[in-house]
Design a protein that fits this description.
Elements lengths: L1 H12 L11 E5 L2 E4 L4 E4 L2 H4 L8 H13 L12 H12 L3 E5 L2 H21 L7 E5 L8 H5 L4 H4 L9 E4 L4 H7 L4 E6 L2 E2 L5 E2 L2 H14 L2 E5 L23 E4 L10 E5 L1 H4 L15 H16 L2 H22 L3 E7 L2 E6 L2 H13 L2 E2 L1 E3 L3 E4 L7 H32 L1
Parallel strand pairs: 3-15, 5-6, 5-7, 7-10, 10-11
Antiparallel strand pairs: 1-2, 2-3, 4-12, 8-9, 11-12, 13-14, 14-17, 16-17
Helix pairs in contact: 3-11, 12-14, 13-14
This protein binds pyridoxal-5'-phosphate (PLP).
Pyridoxal-5'-phosphate (PLP) binds next to α5.
């Protein structure tokens, strides 16, 4: 009832930018969301990789309560206690030197693009021959603001807003030859999601990432790793690039960093940071006391509960069980991912759509991305028992679909 009236009101009042699913959630506990009728849903998406510690976590609630009672905002005209200690932790975890705080993923990525351009400008002022072009990857997703969307591959996201930021060229995913061919001293930065998220959970290859690093080293261009979805423990490491044993010049964080309180961050090397001087970049809300306090709490819990190891173990278990499922159902053509960033590719977009809707009917939340991929970004606190519930639900649904397809086929033969 409430859902219907909210739907009607939103339809009239909001810009129609989202195709929302018809569910109204009112609370949550652990890995479960609760709807208006009191029914619980196993959440394998965590608000698109945001609610990494799940719902109603006491440490997060305490951080919000305590900090909001003290101070919520002061602006970047003044100091507050939370910024430097959080920046210290992030630099230690990432291997990078400096941090810029902001409020969302696209804003972090926008800062990264601006820094790469400014850094190339700095090099040019020192007499170096370096241009303004970016290389980004096919199937990339870096956000919706005009620079971020320019480095995002899908045409439907860019074309209505043309001209977007110029000087971006797309390289075929994991195609080292194409990367080498398109790279030159014109390039100021190479943009990579170590594991493509919206693009369908595709980890970049070791060779491709290493060649990108080497090409950047050869000219002074910057390697930009977008870890907005893959960063801060999602893949079982603090940063997905740590699986590859290399360091980018810039990385971006957002989704899980403050467990749902809006926050983003761009981290970079000392050398790159020198390109920004006071006044060149900024944000009103970025790195405020509340967001910093909550991000501290997230890192505290991840460390004290050993969540990286947990993500690694439960993620491996989840992918093993999905592999077994794939061996039973021919419609599953691939199982991919790292840690708890997992995708299974089906042989049909229509089937992927049906399965995700039917899982919702069974009160299990996942989503479909890149047409044919079922994506899982569960909270880091997911347990094996939740994986088992998911696998048996999927097994039943795939079996039903195969039987129906079988009957349909037999029916056709009978007529033929
Ligand atoms: C979600 C996402 C973004 C954009 O983040 P917003 O907070 O929605 O602006 C950028 N890059 C990647 C890899 C993402 O997953």
């Amino acid at each position: 009832m409430r859902l219907a009236s909210i739907q009607a009101a939103e339809k009239k009042l909001l810009l129609q930018t989202y195709e929302r699913n018809p569910y109204l959630f009112v609370s949550g506990e652990g890995v479960y969301l609760r709807d208006e009728s009191g029914a619980d849903y196993l959440d394998l998406l965590s608000g698109i990789g945001v609610s990494a510690l799940g719902y109603g976590h006491p440490a997060i609630e305490a951080a919000i309560r305590d900090q909001s009672a003290k101070l919520i905002h002061t602006s970047n005209l003044f100091y507050h206690e939370g910024t430097a200690p959080l920046a210290l932790r992030l630099t230690e975890l990432s291997g990078l030197d400096r941090v810029f705080f902001c409020n969302s993923g696209t804003e972090a990525w926008e800062a990264a693009l601006k820094l790469a351009r400014a850094h190339a400008g700095l090099l040019r002022s020192e007499g170096k021959n370096i241009g303004t072009r970016f290389l980004a990857l096919e199937h990339s997703f870096h956000g919706r603001s005009i620079g971020s969307v320019a480095t995002t591959h899908k045409e439907k996201y860019r074309e209505p807003f043309a001209p977007v930021m110029p000087d971006v060229e797309f390289v075929r995913f994991n195609d080292v030859e194409d990367l080498r061919a398109k790279f030159s001293s014109d390039v100021c930065g190479i943009c990579i999601e170590p594991v493509q998220g919206e693009g369908g959970i595709h980890p970049v290859s070791q060779e491709f990432f290493a060649v990108a690093r080497e090409l950047c080293n050869s000219t002074g261009a910057l390697l930009l790793a977008d870890e907005i979805q893959s960063g801060l423990g999602r893949t079982g490491r603090w940063f997905a690039y740590q699986h590859y044993g290399l360091l980018p010049d810039i990385t971006t964080l957002a989704k899980p960093i403050a467990n749902g309180i809006p926050m983003g961050a761009m981290l970079c090397t000392e050398r790159a940071a020198a390109a920004f001087t006071p006044g060149m970049h900024g944000t009103t809300f970025g790195g405020g006391p509340l967001a910093c306090a909550v991000a501290h709490a997230v890192l505290d819990v991840m460390e004290s509960d050993n969540l990286l190891t947990h993500v690694d173990e439960v993620g491996a278990y989840f992918r093993d069980r999905l592999q077994v499922l794939a061996s039973r159902h021919a419609c599953i053509v691939d199982v991919r991912g790292l840690g708890l960033m997992i995708g299974i590719e089906l042989n049909s977009a229509e089937l992927a759509k049906q399965i995700s809707a039917e899982m919702m009917d069974r009160r299990i939340i996942l989503n479909r991305t890149s047409e044919t991929v079922l994506r899982f970004l569960p909270p880091y606190i997911l347990e094996r028992a939740h994986v088992d519930i998911t696998i048996s639900a999927l097994d039943e649904l795939f079996t039903n679909h195969a039987e129906h397809a079988g009957t349909a086929l037999e029916g056709e033969h009978a007529h033929g």
